[in-house]
Amino acid sequence: MLESGPEAPSPPRLLDRVRAEIRARHYSARTEKAYVGWIRRFLAFHKMRHPSEMSAREVGLFLSDLATRRKVAASTQNQAFAALLFLFREVLDIELAGLDSVVRAKRPVRLPLVLTQAEVIAILSRMRGVPRLMAGLMYGGGLRVLECCRLRVKDLDFARAAITVRDGKGRKDRVTVLSTRLADDLRQHLGRVQRQHQSDLTRKAGSVALPHALNRKYPGAHRVWSWQWVFPATRIRRDAATDRWQRHHLHESVVQREFAVAVRLAGVAKPATCHTLRHSFATHLLERGYDIRTIQELLGHSDVATTMIYTHVLNRGGRGVRSPLDDASAPNDPRCPRHPHRP
Question: Residues with catalytic annotation?
């Protein structure tokens, strides 16, 4: 009797193929999680039919259900659409006919919420420790909260008063402002972090996650001080991929939570978040006379039209128009003329 040969490996499952394609393009872990989640929901919505058996009609039905039954925001529906587009085009190599006719939700155009400088100072004065330093960096340089959390020691240039933001939104690097007002506090903070790092090294820890293939290119870089997070997590954990004990960066929820408490304590009657500090940074620079192109570079916007939305603050009171009520006399004011039909 002939012995059977080795069994052929089973083809990867659909979601594993999605993950592989995402990682091949170096998309972020958050994008991977979001795309896989939407594809799971799409398959469940259509009773686990394989997407190769579907068409643009099924995509449209799913997106319509999100909008009509689940009442999701336009940005949420558009993210789901992007995930399904990636599934069909990049993973299954299928170009769906009629996909352009699928109704896409339009995001409402809203002006960004902006704090006054006095409100920013009031909020920061009610924060302490690392969250206060992080909030100061976000306002002082227009950083997004995750950009702040992911800063590495080598990204800070005290001599030039500059911060290099690596792999920001849209996978772009940029250089922005490091407030000299924060320099001393930041140096003291880095001193504490460096002592912690040295202590971790003595315990056979002290590693940090490196982007892309740098682990292979620079085998020892994961333990080098310059690659460490500026704001490391308080706990050490074992990384499953490398089997190393390391610290992740501080989770963004830590500073977000502290900022929300400070807004309440400061009595600021605005729904401000950490991202409001970025809006306030851009708006206050415009008020001080900096040109729009400079602000565009500092924020990392690809299109100057995105930056132009901050010019709304220069149009106070309805594009500078003075209300006619401001020129009218009060009803009890003796200067107020009587109505011609009244006695």
Answer: 144, 169, 275, 278, 301, 310
